Amino acid sequence: MVETTPSPLGPDGSPDRILAEAVTTLHLVALRRQFDAIRKVFGEDPPHRAREALWVVLEVLLAHLRGERIALRDLVSRAEGLLSGPTLSRVVAEMERDGLLTSKAVPGEGRLRLLRPTEQTLRILASRAEAGFAEFAAIVHQTERCMIDARDPSVGADL
Fold it and tell me: The organism sits in which domain of life (predicted)?
């Protein structure tokens, strides 16, 4: 007989358990999409720091889409100590070399260089956006249905 420990999330079908499963699924989907993006960008032989590179490209891309300025120092701050300045500097240099980012000096601001995605990066995003959004939306929709069923099983049967 196998002994089991009661879950602090409650029994199967409870709202806390449903939400925990949904959040876990979203994280796993995000990681799988990350791995797919790494293969799409770098091929089957990605660089040693491919995940860091993808994070850098996504941060720069999001800043661009929001019309915000972003520089290496901003990336260091956003990494919150998980990635060092020298590591991020090397990653940015590799991304520039690979044609995924550009940097441009800002007159009058010392050594500050603003980062921007290239057209290649924007094309890669556009080719993946619809499928990515659909995958996340399906998980959210399924979770909503499970939450409705958990609260009132008779309501979920009508959906």
Answer: Bacteria
Predicted confidence (pLDDT) per residue in 34-44, tens digit: 888 888 877 88
Exposure on the CB side of residue 93, measured as CA atoms within 13 A: 6
Strands, E assignment, 95-153: 101-105, 113-117
What tokens does 143 get? 């979770």
- For the entire predicted model, the pTM comes to 0.71
Domain membership of residue 125 (yes or no) is yes
DSSP secondary structure letter of residue 7 = P
Pairwise CA distance, residues 135 & 72, whole Å: 32
Question: Are 125 and 131 within 8 A, CB to CB?
Answer: no
Read off the CATH number of the domain in which 119 is found: 1.10.10.10
* Confidence class for position 3, pLDDT limits 50, 70, 90: low
* Residue 152, in any domain of the structure: no
